[in-house]
């Protein structure tokens, strides 16, 4: 098994994640499983990597002017508030994974993601009305899916934030922050199960970390409408991947 290939694959996935706010776990997890790696080699390490890349991403997005994550600003307040809902969803997801291994909600989540992508693309030139309720609801669903599968958080959270009236560049930084919290909790819960396999850790962690500043810099150079369009397309692609994963199980 060519383990060294995991590093460049992780770099590419994290670049997409930092540029569009989604895609790392959703793409990397099934790719690694298809390469023959076991779930406990993949899911916990992906969660650990996204703790590191999430907080690093917040720093670089703030530094590049993509989003003001100062404590007094709205994006930071949104990010910190949704962590409560993230905690609830992640705990439920990890417990479900450890005890039942699969979730009947995966197919429904894929359909929700696809619908979000269509709505965002249809209204890509418009700014949605701000809604706290939509953000908090989506964050709970997204974190549950993250805990049980290692992926799917980004598309749901990005779609939920955009549809809740958050600007695309701000949404990327908010998702970085919230996902880091979600993954920190998820990884901690897996650590208590004492069944993590560390084989892929160096490759996933290094590959992902190197991609963070590159993706954040490119966000700065991209127009908001164009970025929203690309995010909508990516949400559709990832929703399709999630749906196919469900149908093939």
Please describe the biggest sheet, giving its number of strands, its sense, and whether it closes into a barrel. Answer: none
Low-pLDDT regions: none
Q: What class, by secondary structure content?
A: mainly alpha
Order of helices and strands: HHHHHHHHHH
Compute the CA-based radius of gyration.
Answer: 16 Å
Task: Please give the domain count.
Answer: 1
Structural account:
It is globular and about 45 Å long. Helix 1 packs antiparallel against helix 2 (24-34). It has one domain. The protein has helices at residues 6-20, 24-34, 39-63, 74-100, 106-122, 132-149, 153-163, 168-193, 201-220, 224-248. The two termini are 23 Å apart. The longest helix has 27 residues, at 74-100. It contains 10 helices and no strands. By secondary structure, it is an all-alpha fold. The mean pLDDT is 85.
Summarize the helices and strands and which ones pair or pack.
Elements: H1 6-20, H2 24-34, H3 39-63, H4 74-100, H5 106-122, H6 132-149, H7 153-163, H8 168-193, H9 201-220, H10 224-248
List its salient traits.
249 residues; 78% helix; mainly alpha; 10 helices; 0% strand
Give a quick precis of the structure.
The chain is mostly helical.
């Amino acid at each position: 098994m060519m383990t060294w290939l995991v590093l460049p694959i992780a770099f590419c996935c994290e670049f997409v994640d930092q540029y569009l706010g989604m895609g790392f776990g959703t793409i990397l997890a099934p790719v690694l499983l298809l390469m023959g790696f076991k779930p406990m080699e993949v899911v916990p390490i992906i969660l650990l990597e996204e703790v590191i890349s999430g907080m690093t991403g917040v720093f670089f997005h703030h530094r590049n002017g993509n989003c003001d994550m100062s404590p007094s600003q709205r994006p930071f307040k949104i990010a910190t508030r949704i962590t409560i809902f993230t905690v609830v969803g992640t705990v439920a997801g990890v417990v479900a994974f450890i005890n039942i291994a699969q979730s009947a909600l995966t197919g429904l989540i894929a359909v929700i993601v696809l619908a979000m992508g269509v709505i965002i693309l249809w209204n890509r030139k418009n700014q949605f009305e701000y809604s706290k309720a939509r953000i908090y609801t989506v964050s709970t669903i997204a974190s549950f899916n993250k805990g049980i599968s290692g992926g799917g958080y980004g598309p749901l959270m990005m779609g939920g934030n955009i549809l809740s009236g958050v600007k695309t560049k701000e949404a990327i930084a908010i998702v970085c922050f919230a996902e880091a919290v979600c993954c920190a909790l998820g990884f901690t819960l897996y650590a208590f199960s004492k069944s993590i396999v560390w084989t892929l850790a160096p490759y996933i962690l290094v590959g992902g970390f190197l991609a963070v500043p590159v993706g954040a810099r490119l966000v700065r150079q991209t127009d908001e409408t164009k970025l929203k369009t690309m995010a909508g397309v990516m949400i559709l692609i990832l929703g399709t991947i999630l749906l196919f994963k469900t149908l093939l199980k």
